[in-house]
Design goal:
Two copies of one chain form a homodimer.
Chain A: E1 8-9, E2 19-21, H1 45-48, H2 54-61, E3 67-69, H3 72-78, E4 86-88, H4 90-96, E5 101-106, H5 117-129, E6 134-139, H6 143-155, E7 158-164, H7 165-170, H8 172-180, E8 184-188, H9 194-202, H10 210-222, E9 227-229, H11 236-255, E10 262-266, H12 271-285, E11 292-298, H13 303-306, E12 308-313, E13 322-327, H14 349-356, E14 361-365, H15 367-381, H16 387-406, E15 411-416, H17 424-431, H18 442-450
Parallel strand pairs in A: 5-15, 6-7, 6-9, 7-8, 10-11, 10-15, 11-14
Antiparallel strand pairs in A: 1-4, 2-3, 4-5, 12-13
Helix pairs in contact in A: 3-5, 5-6, 6-8, 9-10, 11-12, 15-16
Chain lengths: ~450, ~450
């Protein structure tokens, strides 16, 4: 007999995963390695360890170990907010009048307000274990910076956050949360780094960008003894840590005998989606299952749906290794979308490779459609979503409505990555009808592609 | 053998209470009834039903029914965010190095950000059931307004919120959350009511007060067909609905064989504390248990610790019934404390009576001490508390430190009523050292008492 499915499936603490799942280790054709921008040879863990903690550098290049143990200290921290609930959207199903069953994994149930904390605590732990004094990082929308501040505070590490200037000014409360956790927050571009000074000189009054803030944070880490750089998305190590999302989701579904048909996630750098799909995709590439995976991105920053699969710079200052990814070019400047977390020009190499192999679909959605879905969802399911997360909601609703048309019963699972409490300025614009649906023209995209490095590989 | 206690105790949905507990029905000496301000006779349910829904009016005067069934529709809504977790503060205990065990019931795990939703959904349900079009209410800090907006949105009711003007201006994002849920929000005092116009005339440029916003909301409801007024604290009906907090807490503790020694809650109007202690106090008054209960209030608004136990007006406009309560006088204007939810001049009659009978203690704490505890707690336990909730944290920490001195093992339970995401402006003031610890002088209190009605009862 099937167990009745509650509104919220909370796993026991004993069911919290003990291992992260390294998706690359399951793939036959591996994602392309990071390249040293000078030699164009694959980066070694040793080379990477001047930028990242040694253990994180090791994880970054490891594409053979399928499961990596979660340190006890990290699991103990996870226990303060995990397992995160898998929620059955009974109310949404009823209002949509769909035969589909909708589930969402809610990662907003912690003070950082998003899934970012899952990797932040791991990165802080390895920094502490290595005896470092602190870490530097960048933040756009502010979720990653908040998460890393919390994690560093827990382990007594210093945390220096370079926050994209426009966000720093528009989101003073995000900044204040980071200060509450003892972090120092600097608007980027700043005058504290060479790359920041250069960009300020070239573009006086600029509001900054994620690519630029990354360059500054990397430079700042390299200039300070006992510091390393930490990044909240795009990297392999981050996808590894985020697999905890998918592992819990799969355990919860298995427990109730539910097989997912469609798995949906928003995708900026790819950390949430990569983590959510990890165990499901591992089954898929081993030929053991047949899921549909859908990455959802903003039409204003259409990395997968309109980008090129090529080696590119990860940051504006070109101080980072090169990554092969779907990209719009590191010089592409997305319009001022309100989903700041999805404004990155590239997509993590693992998801890029899976997409290229046809194992994953991608869809782009326009901003007002996203906010319509966000508000609709908030009113029905109670949770006020982050604009980023609402991209996944939009497509989940669209798929549920298709089921209504066809009469098919499908199990739709999506990732609700976070809450929108610090995004109310965007909601205000939406309510006041002041939100634009800007989509870049082909000509604009060509300009971005023109900046791709010519590697002659 | 005792079960190992997890970090978070989540009850199953099947353990969600089916009945609210009506604490007054357990008390030998009942709290004094509301009085009709004209006749000075106790208000009947019929009289109250011109202001409140009929069923809520009935609940308001019912001091004999011990358990009142929670309607299925309300329980279904509860399932979207309840049972709320009871958290064992392992990390805090470790850092404090105390033999005490500390537990907190976390009510911030929903979009309204506080416990207020527990009563909001009940009040909206009864309004819907009665066939009303909508409800009016007031909000100070904004938590209650948000909660009622969510609840009304769920049942398709119109919701008109009078928001204390100073909060309306300082917390635009709170306002935006309410708009997301379809509510209309009016800064109070407004020009839409007689009492509002009068106050604006008398005190031009005033930032408003909770007592004034109540008067406006009551007047607005009486002027509109198919509308009633809803209140988020102070009333008996609200304490009844909030008993779900205490009932879950007790079930969770019983499950793990834990007996609480001290139960602590912040107290403004008393809704959270009254709900948290309900089943424990019911045992106490029946002589079946021996707990210590501590109400914590701001030193800037010391209702219990320095107030008078007397009949008083509930609102500035004196349009509401009279209530016997610990009060500072309806004319008392507390300093601009950052715990807006605790700035009410009176205390709910049930808690007032229990305090008067010596069944409950009260303690007042200064603002900077509260924010110190808030930040400390956020860094250690991860959750960023609302300033209101941090009052309880402050005393819980103090009690745990006393245990450290004496070596006593005690089980300390406190209510963490909500999150501080919309209070970052207050945290900023704290970080910048700009927070005042204003305590009213005896002379100021005397002025407030001078405004108490002389009922010659």
């Amino acid at each position: 007999m099937k167990k009745e499915i509650p509104y919220k499936i909370y796993l026991d603490e004993s069911e919290l995963p003990k291992y992260w799942l390294n998706l690359r280790a399951f793939m036959d054709k591996k994602p392309a390695p990071l390249l040293n921008p000078k030699t164009l040879n694959p980066m070694t863990a040793e080379e990477l360890s001047s930028v990242f903690c040694a253990e994180l550098a090791r994880q970054e290049v490891d594409d053979t170990t399928k499961y990596i143990e979660i340190p006890t200290e990290v699991r103990d921290f996870y226990k303060m907010y995990r397992p995160a609930p898998l929620i059955r959207a009974y109310c949404l199903e009823k209002v949509l009048d769909t035969p589909a069953h909708i589930y969402y994994k809610f990662e907003g149930n912690n003070t950082s307000g998003s899934h970012k904390l899952n990797s932040a605590i791991a990165q802080a732990y390895y920094a502490k274990e290595q005896g470092l004094k602190g870490v530097t990082t960048e933040t756009g929308a502010g979720q990653w910076g908040t998460a890393l501040s919390m994690a560093c505070s827990y382990f007594g590490l210093d945390c220096n956050v370079y926050m994209v200037k426009v966000s720093y000014e528009q989101k003073p409360f995000r900044r204040e949360v980071m200060r509450t956790y003892g972090a120092t927050v600097t608007p980027s571009p700043s005058m504290t780094t060479e790359v920041g000074r250069k960009i300020n000189e070239e573009f006086p009054g600029t509001g900054g960008s994620l690519g630029c803030a990354i360059s500054e944070a990397v430079e700042a880490a390299s200039n300070k003894d006992g510091y390393r750089y930490a990044l909240g998305s795009v990297l392999n190590q981050v996808l590894l840590h985020q697999s905890v999302i998918g592992l819990e989701t799969k355990t919860a579904l298995d427990k109730y005998g539910v097989k997912a048909d469609i798995i949906i996630g928003c995708a900026g750098g790819g950390s949430n989606l990569g983590g959510l799909i990890a165990p499901f995709m591992a089954e898929q590439v081993e030929g053991k299952a047949n899921y549909r995976f859908i990455a959802v991105e903003p039409a204003s920053c259409p990395t997968l749906t309109r980008g090129k699969y090529a080696y590119d710079y990860c940051d504006t200052g070109k101080v980072c290794p090169l990554a092969k990814m779907y990209t719009l070019g590191s010089g592409f400047i997305p319009s001022a979308s309100h989903a700041g977390g999805l404004r990155y020009h590239g997509m993590t190499s693992t998801l890029s490779e899976l997409y290229d192999q046809g194992l994953m679909e991608a869809r782009s959605v326009e901003q007002t459609k996203v906010f319509e879905a966000a508000e609709y969802f908030a009113r029905i399911e109670g949770i006020l979503p982050a604009p980023e997360s609402a991209h996944a909601i939009r497509v989940a609703i669209d798929e549920a409505l298709k089921c209504k048309e066809t009469g098919e019963h499908k199990n739709i699972v999506f990732g609700l990555t976070g809450t929108g409490y610090f995004d109310m300025m965007s909601y205000e614009k939406f309510h006041d009808g002041k939100m634009s649906d800007y989509i870049p023209s082909d000509e604009e995209l060509q300009k971005g592609f023109a900046g791709l490095p010519d590697l002659k590989l």
